[in-house]
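In this supplementary section we document a worked example of the pipeline. Step one takes a protein sequence of length 190 as its only input; no multiple sequence alignment statistics are reported here. Step two produces a three-dimensional model, which step three serialises into structure tokens for compact storage. The input and output of this example are shown verbatim.
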Amino acid sequence: MQEVIDPRDIFIKGKSVVLKALTKSDVENSNWYGWFNDEELSKTLQKHYFPNSLESQLDFWEKNILNSRDKLQLGICRTDSSNLLGVVSLNNIDFINRKCEYAIVVGEKSGQNINIFLETTNLIFNHAFNTLNMNRIYGGGISKELVSLMCRSLGCKEEGVSRQEIFKNGEYHDAYRYGILKSEFVFKLR
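The serialised model returned by step three reads:
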């Protein structure tokens, strides 16, 4: 029997996923820190350069999540389980220019499907635009396919390419950039 999520930790609830406040227990009892030691999972991330440990993940949680006002990082769970599937974040939150950077990592294989990705992204974008009053969300990465998916499915616009920006897997990769404005975002859950 799967353990149900503590309702006090639920921050945003969707149809299939819950975005929850990340707790010390999440760091200690999930495979969160192990995701960044997984070479295959990290192949398109700017991770896996140095080993991650439970202690370093606890330190990151304490220093960068617990009391941050320029970063919002939430755990991704199914609505019927407390099992942490991944994390989603708004980074570099800039309240003067009303912009932030989006990032997501889904580490558990059971959560790596398009519906969880799209619902999670819709929920966090909606929160950014309609609660935090952001005007622009941006992001990017070395996966041109993921950026194309963001543009096709979520209304993001391709904004360019930063040539040879990221060193990964023995070579330099271009970083594909995307962004979306509040006026372009349509909140929809599938």
